[in-house]
Amino acid sequence: MGLATMGVAENLPTYYFAWSLIGIAMAAGLYDAAFSTLGRLLGEGARTSITGLTLLGGFASTLGWPAMAAMEEWLGWRGTCLCMAAVHLLIGLPVHALMIPSSAKQPVRPVITGNGHTTRTPRQASGLFLLIGMMLTVLALVVSSVSVHLLDALKQLGIATAVALAIGMVIGPAQVAARIAEFSVGRNLHPTWSARVGVLLCLFGVGLLIAGKPWLSFVAIVLYGAGNGILTIARGTLPLALFGAQGYGSRMGLLARPILIAQACGPILAALVLDTFGPAPMLSVLCCLLMICVVISFRLPASSHPTA
Prior knowledge:
about 300 residues; about 80% helix
């Protein structure tokens, strides 16, 4: 509906309304909903599927942007929007409606009982959930800020526009490479350790960008992209590993709410810092936020949830 509305928009309010519809659809149909669905269908065995899903998703922009650019040359931007709307209607909707099994809604279990080895009280479980939510929310703020302002920050650091674009293009392949490593080598690593590795890689990557050297910026973006790729997986697997499959979809929904708010606010706040103080202070603030995430990640347990 959003893409179709955009394709026929004749004024700015209609265009904004179309983007609003697309934003609602993205909140309801991207990774959070997909992770919840896999957790509901596969339970605690969903980690491999979540990793595989993000691995395929990593190619979305790599394949989608050139395809849409080609369609725009052929059909114009309005025709491209209508064509993508038709793809959603004729391919995406039947896949979701006919090929994904349904089941009864699973309630959240507020009390997690132990198996004789580990027991969490409701207060401990709530505290652990709050820590995960804080870490993922701060990460979302950082990632959204970098996504929007990376090119401007690099150019203000003195890096030529063409080089800055080349640096930005490294993020996608780095994400895919990290997800392949997670899928193969890191599949036996507890998601808490995956999250720690991902946060540290992002921290080192953003920190190296401050130097403003082109060759070092390539290294920095490889580290940052790899860390972000791992953290996308951890966003789905960490709650599953620490709390189990029961109520997983509801927990993902609770986590998504502050994450989406952070994604909306992050670029605006980062823009204020960038315009007022420059790129180095903005990157330094992002490093401080990532340090908070590092501290939180090392407070998370690296063991599975208690078994009921």
